[in-house]
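Model it.
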Amino acid sequence: MFFGLAIRRRPETLLRTSVVLLTALTALASAAGPLQASSEDDDQRENFEADLFLGSAIDSFAAGELNLYLNPDASGKTDLFERLVGGIEFGYRLFGDPKATEKKRNQIWVIGRTVHGVRSTDVNCMENGELSVCRDSLAASQNPTEEFLYILRNASSLEAALGFRWEFLQLNPGRQHSARVYVGGEYGFITVTGDDDDVIDLTKLGIGVIATTGRFQGSFLQAGYGNSDLFERNRSGRLKVDAMLRYPFQEDGAVSMIARIHGDVDGGDGADSIQSYFGLSYRFGNSFFSKKDEETPDDSSLNSDTSP
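Modeled.
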């Protein structure tokens, strides 16, 4: 708490803290011994990756300002602040070669995402029982694009962000679970239907680690500082923690389980917010989106004469 309060009162402390963190990480990596030559196995990500996410957002521990803004109809201690959400997340490797030597292994990624939310009070599970928020178990949607279109047409909120990620240090090279240390920044916003005011601006700058190989590829942990115009008090210098766990249901990564938590705290006596996301991610261009086309027979096979 006192550390966060010091950052808020002295913005220059953030710069010093970032330098100390980067120096410590570099010293730890050097103490571990010389880095092995990077190989293709150290980074199995594509140059461009995009996913469709469908699931639920749990706002039970979000700040009052956020709940009032996103889900004003849900109130009282017995209500579960839950939204049906769907969105698209992408990452593009702008510079860098995953097969490069240790002196040229820096990478720069452009990242972005959108999250469309439907208020819990606006979802009729009696008529839309196939929606992920209405099911009692976690199972892949038979038609994720149709569910995403439903969310788009009925969305009451929109969250979007665009940013960068500079990856500069490889961890565990040549091993099963390799990862990369990065510094990243984002600008984002939140808006809701029927709100004629300006969008709510959100910014952050932080340092993190992202898995580049193994079953948990794409999982990350990031901590940093930024601004949140949603709050009436202590809008700047807020501590922001973002963590995501990704685990594939299929070997090709076509469908993965996603569990994500985002914390936004002021380090003082102001409002804090914690949001959780849980659902499934569908990789564009992978087998899940193409298998239905493969299973559908064409006209020639339907009209062919199989009689002797």
